[in-house]
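Milestone M4 deliverable, item 7.
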Amino acid sequence: MLPLSKQVQIASDIVNRGAARLAGVEAPTFEDNETTFGQLIDRIHKTISQLNTFKPEQIDGSEEKEITLQMRDNTASFQGMPYLLYFVLPNLYFHVTTAYDILRHCGVELGKQDFLGQP
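Output delivered:
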């Protein structure tokens, strides 16, 4: 299992790249150099700020847009909606859940509501 910092970095990258691909813009790159809890929190805030820069009209209509990803050993192609539903969101949930599990394992008192957040 990758460490907590890597789980946060991957979750951040997945959503930043996912939104950028759907919007047809270049995805931002973050250095992946966080070593403290405070830096990881800052990374999450940067990610949220980046996502807030997108306007709905940048992503609306991308349901059938062709998205091609270079994977380790091959290329994967998706239409926009399946890319979001079957690649971006499952990867996001996997890495966020793994980060949550690492924190719980290390004694951080977290519950389901902490994972789900507030509406």
